[in-house]
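Sat 14:20. Reprocessing the chain from the morning session after the first attempt stalled halfway. Input below, unchanged.
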Amino acid sequence: MRILVATDAWHPQVNGVVRTLTSLARSAATLGADINFLTPDGFPSVGMPTYPGLRVALPNRREIARRIEEAAPEAIHIATEGPIGWAVRGYCRRNKLAFTTSYTTRFPEYVSVRTGIPDSVGYAVLRHFHAAASMTMVATESLRQELSDRGFRRLGFWTRGVDTQLFNPDAPASLDLPRPIFMTMGRVAVEKNLDAFLSLDLPGSKVVVGDGPQKPALQQKYPDAVFLGEKKGQDLTSHLAAADVFVFPSLTDTFGVVQLEALACGTPVAAFPVTGPKDVIADHPIGAIDSDLRSACLRALTMSRATCRNFALERSWENSARQFIGNLAALQPSRAPRPARRVDRRTAVPN
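Finished this time. Tokens:
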């Protein structure tokens, strides 16, 4: 199956959406599916005042059409609700092509935190966006129930996985820090709720791995915390493996792939009882979820690292890719997308 995935989030961004799509393509290839990406590459872009350092593509209709028709996809999936996503949605609507979408980022909450715009406005926009899809894929049951309650329809599952060969406990970094080490990793931005972690009264050390617009302010506010900057590949793995507890303070992520990455390194997770942690950790002895994050952090210290690793081994990207491909294949044949036929307007005979 030839699949085209449209996404506004792409390299060099480092986030869960980019890691998910990259891992999806790699695993889908082993299942006989060929995934191409329609990304911001090659389009002009503009900075976002409310998201310092982030640039958003400005696609044009003609180039979007050219890229889709060149890919000649048998299925189209829209991964994000940014300008690329809207442009591909528009193309599919004009050409009566079926497509699927996925709900991966809580943009209404993110925008509300940064601008004060009520999240109800954002959800109204996103409901309209996803209503045109044959299926909107979500990663967890709690998110499906939440979106259903908000009026979203035709919701399906697409769970997440982890690369257990890359993320493993075998070579932890040597961190000369007081134990226990409580670590978080991700974009250092206001929507990640890092204040809730860094303000805790915890023994040992608090470590932040990642970069982002809030980093300078947090470094100044919490001088005792250790900020290690962005880590990638084996360097990231070794740091996750060196932590005693991985702290996931976000209240707005829809899943949090980094939870699985930490667990694959044998590191238990502490988090709030929100979408993502509730579904990943649940009642498994691999971490603790509590509205009192400090209590969750201390309880997570008692969890077995071997149990965390074994839990992650059962959640492969291959299973995630198989589920994603199955969702696309389940579309009714009469609605299966076909690439639009090009018409030379200079020689076309009018009706």
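The chain has 14 helices and 14 strands.
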